[in-house]
Design a protein that fits this description.
The protein is of the alpha/beta class. The longest helix has 14 residues. The N and C termini lie close together (about 5 Å).
Length: about 220
């Protein structure tokens, strides 16, 4: 199997302590959930603390704030002054007009758009968004939740995908699936959350370390 240059995002952290542990292990991005309905939700104040700590000690790591169908003015309000995130990840039903508007209002922060994939038609809907975002994230469709379900996308929809922007794969990423991901799917990045958790928002650091080491070896 070829050596992987795949980027790794660990998502759904809830404490500065674990964020620093994950950063030390070599993650390229750390995601914080700013969606109140999520069991991994953290307040704007805690998010600010986690991200400013990372900015100080690991400034090269992308700091990703995950939002879902959130009014843009509320996103700005939750910056609590100067934004500490480097990326805003849209994980809801945001349309192209929303992407254009957030670009205007928050021009200096990267924009990622997540898409929940249930059928091939969901893949086909992505193309028009490519001119308005910096990266694309594919997650599995689940009627109960917008993300963090641990369910995989059907691999048949992931073969030979090509986008004009970098793309990340989420949904049930585990060591058992990584060989297939790296050899056949080949995303630019992997977004990992529930498969390395003890409980929602609490990561198993040993499992996280094992996964990151496995990726670096492969």
């Amino acid at each position: 199997m070829p050596k992987s240059n795949t980027l790794i995002k660990i998502c759904g952290l809830t404490s500065a302590e674990q964020a620093l542990q994950v950063a030390k292990l070599g993650a390229h991005a750390i995601g914080i959930i700013s969606v109140e309905e999520s069991p991994r939700y953290v307040s704007a104040e805690i998010k600010k603390n986690i991200f400013t700590t990372l900015e100080r000690l690991y400034p090269k790591i992308e700091r990703v704030s995950v939002v879902q169908n959130c009014p843009i003015d509320l996103i700005i309000k939750n910056f609590l002054g100067h934004p500490s995130e480097t990326i805003i990840q849209l994980h809801g039903d945001e349309d192209i007009d929303y992407c254009k508007e957030i670009r205007k209002k928050i021009p200096n922060i990267g924009l990622w758009k997540a898409f929940r994939i249930k059928t091939k038609k969901d893949i086909d809907k992505i193309k028009p968004f490519e001119d308005f975002v910096d990266a694309i994230l594919l997650d599995s469709w689940n009627k109960e939740t917008y993300g963090g379900s641990g369910k995989k996308i059907n691999s048949i929809y992931l073969k030979n995908l090509q986008f004009s922007k970098p793309w990340w794969l989420a949904g049930g990423i585990s060591i058992e699936w990584i060989d297939e991901i790296l050899t056949e799917v080949k995303p630019d990045g992997l977004d990992i959350s529930s498969s390395i958790e003890i409980s929602p928002g609490l990561k198993d650091i040993n499992k996280t370390e094992g996964l990151l080491k496995f990726l670096k070896r492969n």
